[in-house]
Design a protein that fits this description.
Layout: H1 2-6, E1 15-19, H2 24-35, E2 39-44, H3 47-56, E3 63-67, H4 73-87, E4 92-95, H5 101-105, H6 120-148, E5 151-156, H7 160-164, H8 171-188, E6 194-200, H9 212-221, H10 232-238, E7 250-252, H11 262-269, E8 270-271
Parallel strand pairs: 1-2, 1-4, 2-3, 4-5, 5-6, 6-7
Antiparallel strand pairs: 7-8
């Protein structure tokens, strides 16, 4: 499916912002959206690398790099407004930018990765980036999508095992929070034409987001890192009209079987929500 979608114009006329698009999963997903015909803003705090990634994607005027620190509401607002001005609208937001475990591991006050020995300043930065940054980008983007009657917010999270693994806070904490954002915002946006879904690779992806220690552990156990390309097919499907009725769902990239029709592949990649049904809440 990926080759067909990337070579088509299925997303022609759509405009997307992908955060954290300078490298890794973000760059892979932003480039795939370009190949599918969309206008794409490669947003990142590393503007030079984001522009390099945008140029390499080959979209010409449809592909541009932009600086944005998603912790800053004014910068998020500026990014969204400039995107709408340049392309006439905003239809897709991929919330991919994040700080990972290495931000804690190498922080100056960290004694160990146990939460009471971690650098509290680094902890705060991770939460501010991953949770609040995802919110601020969505806060700025949603009104444009609602006004247009159609939109996609796709939050990149992680596996359940990663969320609850020892010595993996606050990263696991933040990704659990983003799952809650997905489920709550999907309800808030019901009936607007805007959907909110989560997408994960399904394991450690082969990017520089993975620490040296994690790579060593993966090598030791004989496991393999997952190609970032596993995100492409489910991402493009979620951005298509075929997924208009899909919201508050969670998809696993490595479970997507490209040999199947998209609807069947989607069913196979669908994972139960991380959080319990709110109807049972007390």
């Amino acid at each position: 499916m990926a080759d067909d979608l990337q070579g088509s114009s299925q997303l022609e006329g759509r405009t997307a912002i992908v955060t954290g698009a300078a490298r890794g999963l973000g760059r892979t997903m932003a480039s795939a959206l370009i190949k599918a015909g969309a206008n794409v803003v490669f947003a990142d705090i590393d503007w030079k690398e984001a522009q390099f990634a945008a140029d390499a994607a080959g979209g010409g005027d449809r592909s541009v790099g932009a600086f944005c620190d998603i912790r800053n509401r004014a910068q998020c607002r500026h990014l969204v407004d400039e995107t709408v001005t340049a392309y006439g609208g905003l239809h897709i937001l991929v919330n991919n930018a994040a700080l990972g475990p290495t931000h804690i591991e190498y922080a100056p006050q960290t004694k160990s990765l146990k939460f009471w020995e971690a650098d509290p300043d680094a902890w705060t930065r991770v939460v501010d980036t991953n949770v609040n940054g995802t919110y601020l980008m969505s806060y700025c983007a949603a009104p444009h999508m609602i006004a247009g009657g159609w939109g996609r917010i796709i939050n990149i999270t992680t596996s359940l095992g990663t969320m609850q693994r020892g010595t993996n806070s606050p990263y696991g904490v933040t990704k659990t929070a983003i799952e809650a954002e997905t489920l709550i915002w999907a309800q808030d946006l019901a009936g607007t034409g805007v959907t909110v879904n989560s997408l994960i690779p399904g394991g450690a992806a082969d990017t520089d987001f993975v620490s040296a220690a994690t790579r060593a552990e993966i090598d030791r156990t004989g496991r393999k890192l997952i190609s970032p390309d596993v995100m492409i097919d489910p991402l493009l499907w979620l951005c298509s009209r075929d997924a208009d009725a899909v919201t508050a769902a969670r998809y696993v990239g490595c479970r997507w079987d490209s040999s199947l029709p998209p609807s069947q592949a989607a069913a196979g990649a669908l994972e139960a929500p991380v959080l319990r049904d709110s109807s049972s809440a007390t």
